[in-house]
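Usage

Read records sequentially. Each one opens with the input sequence:
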Amino acid sequence: MVRESVLHSVSYSGSWGQACLTIEQFVDKASDLGFSGVMLMAKRPHLSVLDTNARARAKLRAQLEQRGLRLACVAGYTNFTADMEHRDIPQREMQIRHVTELAEIARDIGGNLVRVFTGYEHPTAPRGEQWSLIVSSLRECAERAAGFGVTVGVQNHHDIACDYESQFDLIEEVNHPNCRAIFDAWAPALQCADLRSAAEKMGAVTVFTTMANYQFRKRFRYRPELVNYEGLIPEVKAVPIDEGFINYGSFLRTMLTNGYSGPVAYEMCSPLTGGGGCANLDRCAKKFLKFLKPYHSATEPSS
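and closes with the structure output:
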């Protein structure tokens, strides 16, 4: 049973040319649409560490409480393998400090989860070295976040540990109760993995999952010397939750059956069919809530 429906503020951030709301406007929007929680993007124009002082945190917490919303997750943006060609720059320390500040902000606003990424594979270092760097960084982040009563959730987004088996291995190796998985279906689906097997393995170690659905758009490059087209990697286009190729009904049922009990979030984090106007974003968000509604009851949906 799903107890919390969450909307990610990146959906209304203007990041891909869509409608851009302030964080206060977004909170009101999430409440008006009928969500019970929010995931707040931890960068401008939303929850930047540069702008969110004690007064801003208190104000935002009061607004969330007034609107009946919970801060389900602070969405951090990290890349622990960044700039490995310049080892004199303490990138690792700066990012751990950033995650620590996000954990403090999450606590102050009433939350207990900070989302992080692993790292993009860097050409200047062996993969094993990068893996070890990420493990040690996540462990230290978890230790520091624990002091605020906050868990660090590792999302399957960047190159390293983006497949579900590696993500599971990573969480096991970090081996800290305040470091868990944020496991989303889109990555294994695009990797042509068996989603049921992935959900069975990851359900019990996952504390948060975010949904978005997609369709493929074929791409070609014209070759005049052949008077023909060369096929390219297809584009992935965001569509409403019930119109894409990912079977979220099966995914969610399998996750719940295998120990998952966290929130379910929705994000519109790439160009969306129908455009980026507020009316279209709202329409897609409402369709997600309609999809999720049967899972709020103890009766398992039939499809």
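Summary fields computed downstream for this record:
- The radius of gyration is 20 Å.
- The chain has one domain: 5-296.
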